[in-house]
Q: What sequence folds into this?
């Protein structure tokens, strides 16, 4: 199950993402936002998706905003989250293969639907390679155990 979240700046991109997930028969849970209203704040949706992934309710997540940056910064504050902003398929594949990213972030104001589709193909086709990357990802996750992070 994929957790999906977005702010007001990413409704068109969200349509592309849903089209992609449906075309691959990948189940998803939409955490909103559901309609363009005043006062949509991307951290609220980033947090919902990050908690769904961190708790194990969902295996991975997709977060969308204007740039992908705000949602990634917010999601990466949650324990267990490795959220990666991707603007091309090379980064999307590397985010899975090297970083074991568990949330893909994209920005509607940065990429069009064609590039978004390529990114999604890259992210969902690639596997974490482990090995030396396992050690490095573990070092990242160890940062969360630092008492100064409390
Ligand atoms: C909203 O205007 C915009 O700031 C937001 O979608 C996102 O790009 C933040 O990083």
A:
């Amino acid at each position: 199950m994929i957790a999906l979240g977005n702010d007001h700046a990413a409704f068109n991109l969200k349509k592309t993402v849903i089209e992609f997930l449906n075309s691959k028969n990948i189940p998803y849970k939409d955490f909103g936002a559901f309609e363009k209203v005043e006062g949509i704040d991307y951290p609220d949706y980033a947090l919902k998706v990050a908690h769904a992934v961190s708790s194990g309710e969902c295996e991975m997540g997709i977060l969308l905003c204007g740039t992908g940056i705000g949602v990634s910064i917010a999601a990466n504050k949650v324990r267990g989250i490795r959220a990666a902003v991707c603007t091309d398929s090379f980064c999307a594949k590397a985010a899975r293969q090297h970083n074991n990213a568990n949330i893909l972030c994209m920005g509607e104001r940065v990429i069009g639907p064609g590039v978004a589709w390529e990114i999604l193909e890259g992210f969902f086709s690639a596997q974490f390679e482990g090995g030396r990357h396992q050690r490095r990802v573990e070092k990242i996750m160890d940062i969360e155990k630092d008492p100064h992070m409390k």
Notes: The pocket of D-ribose is lined by residues 7, 9, 42, 65-67, 69-70, 107 (CB under 6 Å). DSSP finds six helices and five strands in the chain. The mean pLDDT is 97. Residues 85 and 105 are 4 Å apart (CA to CA).
